[in-house]
Design goal:
The protein has 421 residues and is an alpha/beta fold. It has helices spanning 21-39, 53-60, 65-69, 89-98, 142-158, 174-189, 197-205, 216-223, 234-250, 281-286, 301-304, 319-325, 346-358, 371-380, 407-417; strands at 43-44, 50-52, 73-75, 81-84, 107-116, 128-137, 164-170, 254-256, 268-276, 293-297, 312-318, 334-340, 363-366, 383-392, 395-402. The strands form 3 sheets. The chain has an 8-stranded mixed sheet. The chain starts with 20 loop residues before the first helix and ends with a helix. Residues 1-6 have low confidence and may be disordered. The chain binds one RNA strand of 77 nucleotides through residues 1-5, 10, 13, 56, 59-61, 64-67, 69-71, 86-87, 89-90, 115, 117, 119-123, 125, 198, 201, 206, 209, 214, 262-264, 287-289, 291, 294, 316, 369-370, 372-373, 375-380, 386, 388, 390, 397, 399, 401. It holds the Pfam family tRNA-synt_His.
Amino acid sequence: MAKTSGKTPQAIRGTQDIFGPDAESFAHVVETFERVRRLYRFRRVEMPVFEKTEVFARSIGETTDIVSKEMYSFEDRGGESLTLRPEFTAGIARAWITNGWKQHAPLKVATHGPLFRYERPQKGRYRQFHQIDAEIIGAAEPQADVELLAMADQLLRELGIEGVTLQLNTLGDADSREAWRAALVEHFRAVKGELSEDSQERLERNPLRILDSKDPRDRRFVADAPKIDSFLSDEAQAFFGQVTDGLDAAGVKWRRAESLVRGLDYYRHTAFEFVPDEGSAAAAALGSQSTVLGGGRYDGLMESLGGAATPAVGWAAGIERLAMLVGEKQPEIADVSIAVETDALLNTGIAASTAIRTAGLSAEIVATGSPRKRYDKAAKINARVLLSISAKDGETVFNLKSAPGVEEYDRVRDILENLGK
RNA sequence: GCGAUCGUAGCUCAGUUGGUUAGAGCGCCGGUUUGUGGUACCGGAGGUCGCGGGUUCGAACCCCGUCGAUCGCCCCA
């Protein structure tokens, strides 16, 4: 692997050079997403890869570890702090405000591309990673949540991903959420000494996170922790009911996950993740970073960026993780593989390949190395038709070969007959 | 930030209890078959065994450090 000899610089930790079957799977995920988002009439949006640090710091919350340690921030030549986007949502929210996209409300947008987080890489987690993303902004009704989730569910089905289930929860409105949080702190504080060290720390900084602790010492107390349902207002209860009814109507399977939370304060109501079922092939393929697609309703975000209160809901999914679940994809088979068996006929080969490609057939040309071996190399390329170009008694000979009944055989023969006419 | 495992040709890996010029497969380059031919045969190039130090008569192999990778913890927008 990485040699330190010589002067070649190494790739940055946590970046990937994606090639071969992985690249094919990656492209397949993106192409499927583009197709499905059109079915749901989400409009394509292209966003900057970096923003003022403020965009992320204010939306995420100034005090969290995320802002202080886990963002790729730097100063530009003017001394302004900029940050490579760690997520799509904050940038889209900023654009909504600065570009007056309110005029398009409710706005359904989709995008995909690279994101950056300064973290220790592990399976399914990189410093530069890639996500697909879908947002509905300016829609307060539960129908928006339902449509968004139906799209996510259809995407996973069209990708052929099995053994992944929608885990669904509600965080209620701001008041419900705050009351629940207070009750949780009270509950866990009573047994603080028996919690894991990590969770004793969480108690002060992020008590909701104790609910998804992996430590068995914590899990005993998680089971009988206060449930959000006891704190939901009538409106919040009704909202969640409409979401679940809508999902049932849409045929989207879901499971209530009372411990599913979001780390950030701007989330309200619906929170969800598509997670591999325990013991499934998907779970084995993903390792410990297993959430495939996640999101929720973030009615509190716009205000943190100085905009008018705006209801919105969205999700994002890691392309690399999805690619790990879709299986190996091979590049498309070539229509024609061309062996130029003598250098004297190189230009004939070029003319033939151009004519074939112009006709809409894909072609690969082999014209380097030992002339005797070019046929062998061309034959190794997976192609529907094999064409060799050679000279016999001063005449140019096109020799075509394919499996019986291959439609491209006749097309190539016709193209060659018209060559030079 | 913490922990575990790993680091030998372009790639995937062998390398026995430390013992002479470090191997295989694939790939690459060249040659053989006077040949309408893909899977054969022969040959070649390519490695200061991640890097630095130590132990030893002798280190790819043992010890320390360092860099890198992988996986996990923390975190997870």
